């Protein structure tokens, strides 16, 4: 069934450099099915109005659809309540918001633990908090292309107040044992923050099962539009957390001298939100649910199991990440001996194969891996074994061309 879904994605049906497009840049952003595109158009064609404030029919319809999208997100990640689901611009904004909470509670004797495989959006905001509060930022390093759990256990102590780790690395592709890490964090009284940008689109996420205190993800990496994302936070923490932005929508009363805040989740959503984006994210969730997250995960597993042995056979190809494929999601970072990854990506593009090259917003990781850049192929549910074959073929052609 999943082999037949490319037709739902108009953008995939095109010729690039005289070759049919093989889109393998899904860790950067994913393509959108027709159902998501038509929800966007329909919203602007029939319902467009500002939310929450109006009593006219369109405003009520827009509000109902916006809040229905929040409920879809709640169910998707199994949050207890829609009060725990905040719409943001994306993972970066969500993680920045968490660090505003950290600003509120950290002091100079406290510690923050993150890992060396984090995306810049889960590093830089913590550096800022550390600078502002005097808290110490500690990194957990790797073993066999995965988080070194012994190092993690050693780094998390009673001084640790926040542990913030990616569920899935956007370079190594490794799936981190968040539930286990959250248990360790909680034993020491620390909050567990999860960067779910690369997991939420690809596997079942249950924030209660993981026992995450905060969980961040982006709509555009899961077939939704850009400019919409989510921050999940446990209700009792969001109650303690100050709003990040101030203005309309988030207030209860405004006096000349001060103001009071409205209730969750709207306390955090100042100004006119990305209404169409949220509704379209809801449509993306409907589409993902119609395929089944277990089926999506299984499909990507099969692609990885199919392509990895073929890649391993290529002489001069270095692969990064876990050796055990079972620990890997659909992200494969690689380098071809003697070639700059930008040249590799350009050569692959000439074959119609879209991959990314660069530091993937993970400079500390690449420095740790002792490489300035890598190429990266990343799969999603609409990719096929033919796409895998095309990738391998294009890499072999590239090798031949440059040799
Ligand atoms: N974390 C990870 C692991 C990511 O892969 C990305 C996107 N590349 C982000 C955070 C940031 O997501 P966004 O740009 O959508 O805010």
Q: What's the structural domain tally?
A: 2
Largest sheet: 7 strands, mixed
Specify the helix fraction band.
Answer: 25-40%
**CATH class value of the largest domain:** Alpha Beta
Q: CATH homologous superfamily name of the largest domain?
A: Type I PLP-dependent aspartate aminotransferase-like (Major domain)
Overall geometry: globular
Q: Spans with pLDDT under 50 lasting ≥5 residues?
A: none
Give the C-alpha Rg.
Answer: 22 Å
| Record field, number of beta strands | 19
Q: How many DSSP helices?
A: 13
What name does CATH use for the topology of the largest domain? Aspartate Aminotransferase, domain 2
Q: What is the CATH architecture descriptor of the largest domain? A: 3-Layer(aba) Sandwich
Strand content bin: 15-25%
Terminal-residue CA separation: 41 Å
Domain Aminotransferase class V: 22-391
Keywords: Pyridoxal phosphate, Transferase
Family: Belongs to the class-V pyridoxal-phosphate-dependent aminotransferase family. Csd subfamily.
Protein name: cysteine desulfurase
Structural write-up:
This protein is an alpha/beta fold and 403 residues long. It folds into two domains: 5-31 and 292-402, Alpha-Beta Complex (Aspartate Aminotransferase, domain 1); 37-290, Aspartate Aminotransferase, domain 2. It is 39% helix and 18% strand. The strands form six sheets. A seven-stranded mixed β-sheet has the order 4-12-11-10-9-5-6, sandwiched between helices. It has a four-stranded antiparallel β-sheet with strand order 15-16-19-18, covered by helices on one side. Helix 2 (57-77) crosses helix 9. It binds 4'-deoxy-4'-aminopyridoxal-5'-phosphate. Residues 27, 90-92, 119, 121-122, 166, 170, 195, 197-198, 218, 361 line the site of 4'-deoxy-4'-aminopyridoxal-5'-phosphate. 4'-deoxy-4'-aminopyridoxal-5'-phosphate is lined by residues 27, 90-92, 119, 121-122, 166, 170, 195, 197-198, 218, 361.
